[in-house]
Amino acid sequence: MLGVSRMRIDRCGETDFLSRPAEFGWILLSGRRQTVQTGFRIVLAEEERAAAVWETEEETGRTQAAYTGPDLKPLCRYIWKLEAYDNHGERACGEQYFTTGRLDIPWKSAWIEPVQLSAAKENVPAVPDHCVADPDLHDLSGFRPAQYLRKSFNIAAPFQKAYLFATAHGIYLPYINGARAGKGELLPGTAPYHEELPFQSFDITGLLNMGENTVGMVLADGWWAGRIGLMGRSCEYGDRLACLFEIIVFNEDGSRQTVTDENCRSSEGPIRSADLFVGECYDARMEADAWNTRAFQDCGWKPVPVIGRAADNLHSQKGSSVQILEKRKPVRIWKTPNGETVLDAGETVAGWIELSVTAAAGTKIILDHSETLDRNGNFMYSVRGRNKDQRDIYITREGAQTWQPHFTYHGFRYVRIRGWPGMPSADSFTVCVIGTPVEKTGTFLCDDWRLNRLHENIWRSQRGNLVSVPTDCPQREKAGWTADILLYAPTLLTLSDGAWFLKRWLDYCRLEQRENGLIPFVIPFYPQYRDFGRRMGGEASAGWSDVIVLLPWSIYEMTGDEGVLQENYPAMKRWMHYIETKMSETAAYAGGDPVLENAWMKGFHFGDWLVPGIMAKKNAVPMDSAKATKDYAVPAYTAWTARTLSEIAHVLGRKEDEAHYRLLYEKIRTAYRCKFFDEGGQVKSDFQGACVLSLAFGLAPKEARQETAGRLCRLIAKNHGCLDTGFLSVPYLLDALADNGKEAEAYKLLFQDRCPGWLYMVEQGATTVWESWDCVQPDGSKGSYSYNHFALGCVGAWLYRSLAGIRPLEPGFGKIAVMPGIDSGLKHVRAEQMLPQGKLCVEWELKPGEPFVMRLEIPVGTVARICLPARLFGTEAPDIEGMDSRVENGMAVFHTGSGKYLIKGQKS
Ligand code: BGC
Predict the structure, then answer these.
(1) What is the DSSP annotation of 257-284?
(2) How far is Cα 258 from Cα 876, in angstroms, rounded to an integer?
(3) Is residue 481 in contact with ligand 1, taking CB distance under 6 Å?
(4) At 668, is the secondary structure helix, strand, or coil?
């Protein structure tokens, strides 16, 4: 039997609203082995029995199809029906509904701006303040209350459907008749607002009644006016809060009613201040009961002026908003040695706390959030810089009450509770974990708990850093640092179904690209980062800005989606053109090699960021690592970006470009070899990172590869068996060893548990991945780095690739190799990975005295080549039904298509 599952539309919005031409996708399931799709047919219609709007039929194994039909009608429910055929003559059908967005319906509403104090402009210095935040010293007098807006309107005729569209300058929470519309938090999320301000679409049919209805909005500073980013500067986009909303009601008689945001009234309310980083202060005594329902009398509220027409920067949001992903109970509340009451969320998260309390009116409860305790087990602030308090204040009304903030979020595990009436219990609190809902599709389990824990920690750091855009961390910066996601993307795409999220962010990268092609190192590029860049000497950096080329390539490799290459290609070329122009500015560096001595190579760069050996030196600052390593990191990444672009040009059939970028790669490679390799093939650098990148990016001469890998091993040995690589080289470290005959050393490095090392973090009790290997030092002292940074979690992909052994033999995993890491010392590994064709499951066991066992589940449409040492089977590879097997160069090689298989070795 052939079946269809996971029918989906790429980049669908809130409640399946479609904002742009889409790509349909599905996977097939079959009980029969060796199944491949031979063709499909898609029919798109307005209703089940209506005539087709679009049909397409293809004879192909591809389980994705781009929509190429006519423009769809706005706010219309469509059904897409799929029929797929396989090579056994079977047929499967599936269908799914979706609703289009408002598309080109012009806005009748205009921006409205409640009467408010302007936000205070905090012009903090462009160079970050490195002291650790201390909220007790913070003067909050410049902070302002959130705005509450409401409007009642009448629905006179019976209606069929109703939608709300909304966005804000600031962040907003929408209500209809007292109930929340949708599940989104921190709306509209962050984006390069001036270029593209996302609006959200909500199906509110079930929330409206005939007669009088009320819409309510709460508005706070958010990314627009709040104190954000590294420097904690405010008013990055503006100092006034405003919002825009519109309701469209479809009546049963076919007519349409539009409710605009005109004639709203506003007031301040219980939210006395709300800042995305600093925290929220809520005085429940100021609550106005049922303010967002029609029963409320708003005579004391002020009219909200209309300030201007909706501009063309409005775009329907692509994909989901941030949501509460999980609600969990704290694992413990106790008194720390210094007598403070602290709650332990059990793991490091991004989010906030919901509290329930019974108290007399006016009790002030203060919640301070931190990712770590100090070495004595007391609460400590670990976040550096200004305006990073992470403090929520709740002032009670009389009686029993429950509250959570909605206009701030924190990175934390521990919460210090002050002002609580009596000793609180865990029942009084709920940890609300937030993030963008990206489905977890990867699982990894083995017989070493530490690796399983590492895998969980990686997933947690991912979850805490997909907050509207991929961020570096959820506390200090909450910023879209480009290298972090570039390094992490292969892991993200292995663990989850997150390609749509990365593509949405790539749209923002293109919007932030400068006229001259420059791609900034943080996206969205908040003005403070521009100033920071100017102070440092540049707004772009090798390895960071290369994201525009290397990230689409990662997505292509993992999904086979050529569209992402096509869509970003012009931006990639403009970025490369920027580099080439800079490389032609050699005058200032005359005398040296023109390929390496020029304005690009010698300019500002973050280099191989945070090399642990450099950071361990007394009084070291992160830029020391940048300066010491940019010599190798910049040409290596520039060469690799040129080479990747050449491959992209090849895929897209751009022959001239392909040759041009290939030549550029070779030019840089030649210069790099001259500088970093002596005639005997020895690497002339003491950095592990230089060896790693030389190997990973094909820069080491062929005949020097062995020696380079050997040198890397010697450098590791000299470093007490530990890695010493920065952000840019660490993702390639284990492959550089394993692919060059040093597999045993790669395993040793992964499994060793001293600092710096992945399992060191695990052994220290980490529940997420840290920014710095020594956030907790061997002597127990705690650092003020981020404890929730996914960058070093880039090793996640390696667990699947080398321990489970799942490798693509072509982009999109249509053909795969399975080469499990049976020499890793592990006895059992089980991994599941969602390939574009469906779920792949690999499980192997190698227990002393027992035969090797491997179970495989290969999805429909995938062809696998399984390679295992022949020694597991005696002299011949076993004969397995449905598999073609033979022994080649000491390896037993099995070829097969989809289905479930069991491979058994001989007793060892
Ligand atoms: C961020 C990093 C980022 C870096 C740039 C840091 O402050 O947290 O992860 O890539 O700056 O070097």
Answers:
(1) EEE-STT-EEEE-SEEEEETTTEEEEEG
(2) 75
(3) yes
(4) helix
Contacts of residue 712, defined as CB under 8 A and 6 or more positions apart, other chains included, come to: 688, 691, 692, 695, 736, 737, 742
User: From CA 780, how far away is CA 786, in angstroms rounded?
Assistant: 16
> Rounded distance, CA 772 to CA 775, Å?
6
Query: Of the residues 130, 382, 477, 729, which should be mutated to test ligand 1's pocket, given the most ligand atoms within 8 Å of the CB?
Result: 477
Mean pLDDT of 858-885: 92
609 lines ligand 1 (CB under 6 A): yes
Read off the pLDDT of residues 176-207 as tens digits, 9 standing for 90 and up: 999 999 999 999 999 999 999 999 999 999 99
Asked if residues 521 and 545 have their Cβ atoms less than 8 Å apart, the reply is: yes
Catalytic residues: 477, 771
CA distances from 408 to 162, 474, 555 (A): 30, 11, 31
Looking at the DSSP bridge assignments, the partners of residue 356 are 402
Structure-token match 């396989």, residue found: 86
From the CB of 687, is ligand 1 less than 6 Å away?
Answer: no
Centre of ligand 1 to C-alpha 471, Å, is: 10
The dihedral built from the CA positions of residue 450, 456, 462 and 463, taken in this order, carries a sign that is: negative
Whether the predicted pLDDT of 13 surpasses 70: no
For residue 735, count CB atoms less than 10 angstroms from its CB and return exposed for 0-12, middle for 13-18, buried for 19 or more: middle
Backbone angles phi, psi at 581, to 5 degrees: -65, -45
Query: For residues 792 and 770, is the Cβ–Cβ distance under 8 A?
Result: yes
Q: Are 373 and 416 in contact (CB under 8 A)?
A: no
Please state the atom number of ligand 1 nearest to the C-alpha of residue 771: 9
Closest CA to 545 of 516, 579, 569: 579
- Rounded CA separation 790/793 (Å): 5
The response to whether residue 633 sits with its C-beta less than 6 Å from ligand 1 reads no
Residue 239 has pLDDT above 90, yes or no: yes
Ligand 1 nearest-atom number relative to CA 786: 8
- CA-CA distances (angstroms) from residue 539 to 170, 522, 544, 604, 645? 26, 9, 10, 8, 22
Alpha carbon 849 to chain centroid, angstroms: 44
For 606, the token pair is 């973050």
**What confidence category does residue 382 fall into, taking pLDDT thresholds of 50, 70 and 90?**
confident
Cβ pair 214, 342 in contact under 8 A: no
- Separation between Cα atoms, residue 67 and residue 57, nearest integer Å: 12
- With a cut of 90, say whether residue 46 has pLDDT above it: yes
pTM: 0.97
Determine the number of helices (DSSP H) and then strands (DSSP E) in the chain: 16, 43
The 3-state secondary structure of 569-613 reads HHHHHHHHHHHHHHHCCCHHHCCCCCCCCCCCCCCCCCCCCCCHH
Q: Strands 863-869 and 306-309, how do they pair? A: unpaired
Nearest to 12 by CA among 266, 237, 201: 201
587 pLDDT exceeds 90?
no
Amino acid at 5: S
Closest by CA to 637, choosing from 567, 578, 683, 693, is: 693
Structure tokens given for 229 = 């980013």
Instruction: Look at residue 310 and give its three-state secondary structure.
Output: coil
pLDDT of residue 134: 81
The answer to whether the beta carbons of residues 711 and 734 sit under 8 Å apart is no
What's the residue count for the chain?
908
pLDDT band (50, 70, 90) for residue 792: very high
Number of other residues whose CB lies within 10 A of the CB of residue 212: 13
Rounded to the nearest whole angstrom, what is the distance from the C-alpha of residue 619 to the centroid of ligand 1?
A: 19
Exposed e or buried b for every residue in 808-821, given b needs 16+ CB within 10 A?
beebbbbebebbbb
Mean pLDDT of 80-88: 97
